[in-house]
Amino acid sequence: MIVKEVCVDNIYDALSAVKKGANRLELCSDLEQDGLTPSYELLIEAKLKLTLPVRVMVRPHSKSFVYNEDELNQMKKTINYCKKMNFDGVVFGCLNEKLELDLKKIEVLSILAKPLKVIIHKAIDFTNSPLKSLKKLIQIDLVDGVLTSGGAKTALHGTEVLNKMMDIIPENFELISAGKITNRNFNLIHKKINGRFYHGRKIVGDL
Question: Which superfamily does 3-200 belong to?
Fold first, then answer.
């Protein structure tokens, strides 16, 4: 089964995505900044009105993916709340000052997040080698998947790396292709990647 995951930042778009055939939702705030942590009010509303699996963005700011202790504590609070509310999963990513994955912070947050699904977002695309970063990431057993464009600006431009990523992931690991995937280019991208998981704001059409 192909999973089409739609990222939304309000309940109206979430309900529209459901009607148009989304299989799963990623809930954020402020998609104009590529998605930040949603408010508790939005999380509560989502729980009341949505039946699809929902994964929650955990990203306290858009300045970078480098987080200090205060910001890390904010992320921990959000993750704990998502556990309490029994969401399907959380989506986050941490880099260090050298713009490589901060595996220690990722592991700490992943341990805290369980039993929720743990997905590392497109922070991986800002590393020097997304493919090498993925190889390190899959050694953390607690991580269930990664959202990536293969390091390119769009999934369509990153298909070569995405295919290499597909070749190295463990059987139950979700490689979620992302980056300007819409209902118009989906078939072309799927033909090139032949993946199971895809992500986009307009992947089931305009909301």
Answer: Copper homeostasis (CutC) domain (3.20.20.380)
Q: Give the pLDDT confidence score for residue 12 in this predicted structure.
A: 98
Is residue 16 within 8 A of residue 35, CB to CB? The reply is no
Whether 81 and 40 have beta carbons less than 8 Å apart is answered as yes
- Check: pTM over 0.70? Answer yes or no: yes
Hunting for tokens 């921990």 — which residue is that?
A: 76
Strand, coil or helix: what is 71?
helix
Residue identified by tokens 């504590």 is 73
**Domain-wise residue ranges, the chain:** 3-200
> How many other β-carbons are positioned within 10 Å of the β-carbon of residue 174?
18
- By percentage, how much of the chain surpasses pLDDT 70? 100
State pLDDT tens for residues 77-114.
999 999 999 999 999 999 999 999 999 999 999 999 99
Question: What are the distances in angstroms from CA 52 to CA 2, 17, 148?
Answer: 15, 10, 22
Rounded Cα distance, 147 and 75, in Å? 18
Q: What are the backbone angles phi and psi of residue 137, rounded to the nearest 5°?
A: -65, -40
Angle at 180 between CA 25 and CA 89, to 5 degrees: 25
